[in-house]
Amino acid sequence: MGLSLVSAGLVLTTRRDPGLREPLVRLRGLVPPGVPLPGVTIGLAAYCYGTVAALLVLRLRADHIEVDGVALAVFAAAFLVVRFAGSPLVDRYGGRVVAVSTISVEVVALAGIASASGPVGALVFIAAAGVGLALIYPACVSMTLDRVRGLRPGVSMGVMTSFWDLGVMVAGPVGGLVAERAGFRAAFLLAAGAGLACVAVLLRMPRPAGSRR
Predict the structure, then answer these.
(1) Angle, helices 95-115/36-62, rounded to nearest 10 degrees
(2) Element containing residue 212 per DSSP (H, E)
(3) Is 35 left (phi over 0), alpha (psi -120 to 50) or beta?
(4) Number of neighbours of residue 63 by Cβ within 10 angstroms
(5) In this predicted model, what pLDDT tens digit does every residue of 78-125 receive, in sequence order?
(6) In 3-state terms, what secondary structure has residue 123?
(7) Which residue ranges of the chain lie beneath pLDDT 70?
(8) Is 152 left (phi over 0), alpha (psi -120 to 50) or beta?
(9) For residues 89 and 80, what is the distance between their CA atoms, to the nearest angstrom?
(10) Chain center to CA of 61
(11) Contact 50/175 with Cβ under 8 angstroms?
């Protein structure tokens, strides 16, 4: 609660830019052209993230792999290190290249988590899962801004981010249902399938004219 109040205070004390005045739009105009494909990309990646967040510890405990106490910390550490160190790669190689590369790592990592039977292998794949998801947000930001070409960037970013929220929201109940019916391995394999679908969307995504991203 305290941090939320500090955040609100920072927002309220930030100077307004008098030159920025964008009229409200109708509901049907809330998804600008160019946003859906990056949105679907980040939504599918968010399903992978949501599966890890909701089911990783339960999956390790179910098979008595005794790293459940540190698993999420390992995932978070790998995620943060790669986010800080790797974000410049998006500017250098473009969002699409980075997204395809990192989500491919995520697919392998999720399949590895599904099949892991020992603590060392589990930790390796858990760290790889953090690596695989670390750059998907900056990559999708780059792709979104490339595709909307500066037109309504605030709305575009908000809508794109909402796809992430939707992916996380769906992952918990859907992954839990699959885990209940078919086991935790099946739930992680389903997440790996979502990662493959994410790569497929990226590979079929047309590039904006004049962009290498």
Answers:
(1) 20
(2) none
(3) alpha
(4) 15
(5) 999 999 999 999 999 999 999 999 999 999 999 999 999 999 999 999
(6) helix
(7) 17-32, 150-151, 207-213
(8) left
(9) 15
(10) 25
(11) yes
